[in-house]
From TrEMBL:
Assigned keywords, A-Z: Isomerase
Entries under InterPro entries matching the protein: MIPS (IPR052199), Myo-inos-1-P_Synthase (IPR002587), Myo-inos-1-P_Synthase_GAPDH (IPR013021), NAD(P)-bd_dom_sf (IPR036291)
SUPFAM superfamilies listed in its UniProt record: Glyceraldehyde-3-phosphate dehydrogenase-like, C-terminal domain, NAD(P)-binding Rossmann-fold domains
Protein name, UniProt field: Inositol-1-phosphate synthase
Length: 379
């Protein structure tokens, strides 16, 4: 049976949902499977992912088995599968860098990171020794230096990289070239939930466009109570996040809105919401006869499980590319599962590219050239 040996950087809420999901789907057949966009990807099922290495900086997680660390504070996501067997994988101390926002020291211990008093390990060596195939990055928003560190560690260890955070690695030409030259696949950047604020906003923007409705202005406001929202109270850490989310919507439009007419981004932290994220979305436009139309939507989701299905697909496609010795940014799966991919494709086109890649009809690079021109023309 084929396996995917996975390393995880950042054992927060998203990692908790991912590990729970891996175990959950081991016991669910295809007929009753809910929540996976692909039950099987060229022989790889969700339950075929094995966690072999894990890194964090929190004192309540470092030194623990990953099966226990995923439920440690400040994690607060929904527990949908608690029967996690012992993994015999100790969470190792990673470098702190900019992984902790200074303002979080002002909050109670149960809500913030508590940096462990331990020496960081040699991450590259740990990746090599564990035999990891893929490293998934779940660093906090704003962790620019920490994310670059783990990207370089993946390169040095020859490990595929799935960048779920809004630090531009796959979509940065210099980093993309590094992975291309090394022959190592990368998927990124900034995970797009299955049914989240960004994908819904993109779908409605496409609907406006397809139905000849001019969109004049829009906002997307998000509130939540997990450590991600607490971390993002520091607005300086939001720059790449706002760019990522805004460009994901702007890329649908023929003519992008001016900055004053579009506002997308996290708005506030409400502790009692925990991992529940609420999105308030408004779109204003004009239809037949230049008459106005206004749309308002409220979306409530468990934030971390909502990203799990996208992450599991990204991890499996990354491993499939590694099997096929394809390196560099994987354009189809990046556009399908990420907010800020190297190339923005319409969602239905990205899905088609992924299906073709899974079937092995053409290589990722062969798909990219004609599709990239088509997407650019469509915009």
């Amino acid at each position: 049976m084929k396996k995917i040996r996975l390393a995880i950087a950042g054992i927060g809420n998203c990692a908790s949902s991912l590990v729970q999901g891996i175990e959950y789907y081991k016991h669910v057949g295809k007929e009753s499977c809910i929540g996976l966009m692909h039950y099987d990807i060229n022989g790889y099922r969700a339950g075929d992912i094995d966690v072999v290495a894990a890194f964090d900086i929190d004192a309540r997680k470092v030194g623990k088995d990953v099966s226990q660390a995923i439920f440690a504070k400040p994690n607060c996501t929904n527990i949908f599968y608690s029967d996690i067997p012992q993994k015999n994988v100790e969470v190792k101390m990673g470098p702190v860098f900019d992984g902790v926002a200074p303002h979080m020291e002002n909050y109670p211990e149960e809500r913030r990171f508590v940096v462990a008093d331990a020496k960081p390990v040699d991450v590259t060596r740990e990746l090599v020794d564990s035999g990891a195939d893929v490293l998934v990055n779940y660093m906090p928003v704003g962790s620019e230096n920490a994310t670059r560190f783990y990207a370089q560690a993946a390169l040095d260890a020859g490990v595929g990289f799935v960048n779920c955070m809004p630090v531009f690695i796959a979509s940065n030409p210099e980093w993309a070239k590094k992975f291309q030259v090394a022959g190592i696949p990368i998927v990124g950047d900034d995970i797009k939930s299955q049914i989240g604020a960004t994908i819904v906003h993109r779908a409605l923007t496409q609907l406006f466009k397809d139905r000849a409705c001019i969109m004049d202005r829009t906002y997307q406001l998000n509130i939540g109570g997990n450590t991600d929202f607490l971390n993002m109270l520091n607005r300086e850490r939001l720059k790449s996040k706002k760019i990522s989310k805004t460009e994901a919507v702007q890329s649908i439009l023929d003519t992008p809105l001016c900055d004053d007419d579009i506002h997308i981004g996290p708005s506030d932290y409400v502790p009692w919401q925990k991992d529940n994220k609420v999105c308030f979305l408004r779109m204003e436009g004009r239809i037949f006869g230049d008459t106005p139309i206004n749309l308002e939507l409220r979306l409530s989701v468990e934030d971390s499980p909502n990203s799990g299905g996208s992450s599991i697909d990204a991890i499996r496609i990354c491993k499939l590319a590694k099997d096929r010795k394809i390196g560099g940014p994987l354009l189809g799966i990046s556009a399908y599962t990420m907010k800020h991919p190297p190339v923005q494709f319409p969602d239905e086109l990205a899905k088609e590219m992924v299906e073709q890649f899974i079937r092995g009809e053409v290589s990722e690079q062969e798909i990219a050239r004609p599709k990239q021109r088509q997407a650019a023309t469509a915009r």
